[in-house]
Specification:
single chain
Length: 519
């Protein structure tokens, strides 16, 4: 949907909503009319700081700045529509943490989900209470809140003592926009599976887990519903956003949860593939099920009441494609002459090959399940293999990992009727990738005929919070549009069934190798 057609479709008197996504690569804001038309979009790039081995941080105040600048850019594109804003919803990166002081300002940088410094504390949490954490929170310890909080507690004790609460980027930005101090810090329930200290079934903090690891419960924020109005846009922040003061701001949700909403995953059996920086695969279910056997899937609360998402992700799975294009296809040159479209066409012309090398997509460690020492690899290279073969293997690595997730979902939810996989994110336009995923997952893959992604979901959450919609189901029915549907041939599916078993065996062998190498 073009911006021009969106503006032409907006009527004076129609209320509007702002959705903001604080992503790894940048902050994206979008302005939507009540009918669902996108009236303006703006993006501001992130600033990731890599200051040492495994260290990846961001400045929380810079994240807030990008939120304000992106909203302001939307206002400039559609000033009349911006004067009718009824609510603001913000989503953000989920597994990282920000320690805040009494005034609600950050006492630490944003400890990114890509930051791997907390690896020793993953092992500590796993050894002392791994099964309890999994059964209570729905996710095994990984590069997420619990180990990160312990890293700050033990490695930076002076800073830890100054921290009043731990929040995430979406919550931090919402607090800053509304002027909340640490006494009103919050986390919405879509993040709880990553916490390491929550009883996710009841939506409460688990005091026993806090006691086990010496984490003070009062350093954990209150738990909110995504649609809860947590405050109103303050006069100072309204000026920075070029909006009027007093606009309601809802708690919002995690970026993955917002992407699921944007795909219309508010019914059982709808699967989602977020083909973004992290490659995420999820199934929508009606009950909480902890993956105690495989320790691979997380079970998170959906933004929609009464639903859950069983999901897992590849840490930086989407980053692998950009790395390949930059460092391999373009040999690290500043001028990126080889494009993704060219790489995709190369594969489409050749078709699926049984002897394509296998690619392990875990360049920064495997997260689901936790294999922090795992690293990427191509295996099975021959002199006949081309650049296209290597790229196809990179695409297949994500799909084959999804295939493992699918097997576990079927085991946990044997009665679940699979509908389709809805794909969103930057990678959804790759025809060959969608076909490969359909072959591995043995399920149709459907594109979402909108490009706004997570900000769309955040805006719908805000719409429910301020009363524009009765429910998220009603919102997605009105706003979400499906696009092209892909279904792999039977012969293609058979090829990938064979490659699945090879891939699983290779993972086990490589994990043993990398564990021994680091011991």
């Amino acid at each position: 949907m073009s911006l021009r057609s969106g503006l032409e479709g907006w009527c004076m008197g129609e209320r509007t909503l702002v959705g903001v996504d604080i992503g790894t690569q940048g902050t994206k804001a979008a302005l939507f009319g009540e009918s669902g038309r996108c009236l303006a979009v703006a993006l501001r790039k992130s600033r990731l700081r890599r200051t040492g081995p495994g260290i990846i941080e961001e400045d929380p105040e810079y994240q807030v700045r990008t939120v304000c600048e992106a909203i302001k850019a939307c206002v400039r594109q559609a000033p009349a529509a911006a004067r009718a804003v009824a609510g603001i919803g913000i989503d953000g990166q989920m597994a990282g943490v920000i320690g805040i002081g009494k005034d609600g300002r950050n006492a630490t940088p944003y400890d990114s989900w890509l930051d791997t410094r907390c690896a020793p504390y993953i092992e500590r949490m796993q050894d002392r209470a791994g099964e309890q954490i999994l059964q209570q929170a729905g996710c095994a310890p990984s590069f997420n809140h619990g180990p990160k909080i312990l890293w700050w507690k033990h490695e930076r004790p002076q800073v830890y003592r100054a921290i009043v609460s731990f929040v995430q980027p979406g919550g931090y930005a919402a607090m800053r926009l509304t002027g909340l101090d640490a006494s009103r810090a919050f986390i919405d329930h879509t993040y709880l599976h990553f916490s390491g200290f929550a009883d996710n079934r009841t939506g409460t903090w688990d005091t026993e887990l806090c006691r086990t690891f010496g984490v003070e419960p009062d350093k954990l924020p209150r738990i909110a519903l995504p649609t809860e109005i947590i405050g109103e846009l303050s006069p100072a922040m309204a000026r920075r956003c070029a909006l009027k003061a007093g606009i309601p701001v809802v708690a919002g949700c995690g970026d993955t949860a917002a992407s699921f909403v944007a795909c219309g995953a508010v019914k059982e059996g709808i699967c989602v593939d977020v083909a973004g920086t992290a490659s995420v695969f999820a199934v929508t279910a009606n009950r909480f099920e902890a993956d105690g056997r495989h320790r691979t899937l997380a079970c998170s609360r959906a933004a929609a009441p009464g639903l859950w998402h069983a999901y897992a992700y590849i840490n930086g799975g989407g980053m692998n494609l950009e790395w390949f294009r930059r460092e391999v296809a373009n040999r690290g040159k500043r001028t990126q002459s080889v494009t993704f479209a060219q790489l995709n066409r190369t594969i489409e012309q050749v078709g699926v090959r049984k002897d394509t090398p296998l690619f392990i997509p875990h360049l920064g460690g495997r997260v689901c399940p936790s294999m922090p020492h795992m690293r990427g690899a191509w295996v099975g290279l021959e002199w006949s293999h081309t650049l296209g073969d290597l790229y196809q293997a990179v695409l297949e690595g994500v799909a084959l990992e999804y295939g493992i997730y699918r097997k576990i979902v079927i085991e946990l939810y044997p009665d679940l009727a699979w509908r389709e996989v809805r794909v969103t994110g930057g990678g959804q336009d790759s025809v060959i990738w969608n076909r490969i995923k359909s072959a591995v997952l043995e399920t149709p893959v459907v594109q979402i005929a909108r490009s706004e992604g997570a900000p769309l979901g955040a805006a719908m959450v805000a719409g429910v919070g301020v009363g524009l919609f009765k429910s998220l189901s009603a919102a997605t029915t009105a706003w979400v549009q499906k696009g092209h549907r892909y279904r792999a041939s039977r012969s293609m599916a058979q090829v990938y069934q064979a490659r699945m078993s090879q891939y699983e065996r290779l993972l086990r062998l490589l994990n043993e190798y990398f564990d021994q190498r680091t011991s």
